[in-house]
Request: fold
Amino acid sequence: MGLFIAAGITTALALCGLALLIRRTNEWRPFAVAFLVALPLQPLMMYAVRLPLDGMLRTTYGIVGWATIVGLFYAPLTEEPAKWLTALVPIVRRAIADHPVSLALAAGAGFGVGEIWFLANALNSPDYAKLPIWNFGGFIIERLAVCFLHGAFLAPAFVALAQGRSFLLGGLVGMVMHFLLNFPIFLAQIDAFGLGAGWLTVLLIWMIGFLAICVVLTRHLARTHEATKAP
Reply:
């Protein structure tokens, strides 16, 4: 029960972030639509694309060698294109011209919330069910950070779309950023460099640093876009 309470708290905090985004503009509908459209995309992508692909690779090649390395690319190559689908909705597509970064953050929040509940359902087991809410503080912090990061990874593509530049180039930037975020997790899983428990500290520092970089990036993209609109 504690896990689902943690998921509910994280969802509520993400919705507060969405409300702050909407408050800065007079156009709440595109933000709400971007959030709602993105909400089911992560579970749909997992069940329709990622899990079948992973099962096929592991059945064919086993859980060794290059098949494990290919797993590093699952998230950037499947999650980023899934988020792009929000730009196909007419009301969102029109609003991207004026608020590309804010709409990317709204869509990222929706995608992240969908991922929260997918994970809560996937992790639901008798062992987890017995744990109280305070055991999931790390889950809340990490998932809330990921809600923002999903939007930050989408922002370059939306800004490129708003400015009439290559959407795919912006999308590629988001994929690379997503890969770089996850790469140290892979190194920790194989205990590269023999750090052992020291990887927990490394991953924490990496996450904090990456968050700071993404905050700076999104602010820069927003300011740059505003400058291009200035007469």
Remarks:
- The chain has a mean pLDDT of 90.
- The two ends are 55 Å apart (CA to CA).
